[in-house]
UniProtKB/TrEMBL annotation:
Protein name: Cilia BBSome complex subunit 10
Organism taxonomic ancestry: Eukaryota, Viridiplantae, Chlorophyta, core chlorophytes, Chlorophyceae
Keyword Coiled coil: yes
Highest taxon of the lineage: Eukaryota
Organism: Dunaliella salina
Coiled-coil ranges from the UniProt annotation: 38-65
Entry keyword set: Coiled coil
Length: 68
């Protein structure tokens, strides 16, 4: 060998597309997703509990008022 560097030769396809990814690749940032602090199911449960508590208090007051 006469000092030449032998490397792999290029192979180009006879048909189809040649894809080249030259260029600056940069990070793509997307919008942050805002998550609710409480799930909808938890909110519904808390509303139901609050309604039941108020109904319970009202029934207790009605019973007291009726017995007095």
């Amino acid at each position: 060998m006469s000092g030449e560097k032998v490397g792999p030769s290029e192979v180009l396809p006879r048909a189809g597309l040649v894809v080249s990814e030259k260029g600056n690749l940069t990070e793509v940032l997307c919008k942050p997703k805002i998550l609710p602090l409480k799930s909808i199911t938890l909110q519904k449960l808390e509303e139901m509990e609050a309604r039941l508590a108020s109904l319970s208090k009202q029934q207790q007051q009605d019973q007291r008022d009726g017995s007095v």
